[in-house]
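Look over what follows to help learners.
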Amino acid sequence: MSPIESQQTMFGKMVEMQKMAASDNIEPAIVSNGGANISGDFKHVIRSINAQQNIAGDMMKAVDAGESDDVVGAMVASQKASLSFSMLMEMRNKVLNGIDDVMRMSL
């Protein structure tokens, strides 16, 4: 691969990452299937959050390496990923608290 082709490929990936970071959807999309498969829904959410974190990491690496000047886009992507992860942790804590409450109930 020539240097020009690698630059074009890198530019294409950066444009794609910027489009993903610029989207207004900060929470992962959940496909509802009637509540029949909650574990599948959780896996989908976790994979979406992981993808957001990977995109943010790639954008930060590009800014650190001098391949991109989009510091604001990288920071926004990082904050979106951080917020999504925080929401996931809060949801996990609520579910665990609910399970604890059910376990403490007397029959």
In short: The CA atoms of residues 10 and 41 lie 33 Å apart. DSSP finds three helices and no strands in the chain. Helices lie at 3-22, 38-64, 71-104.
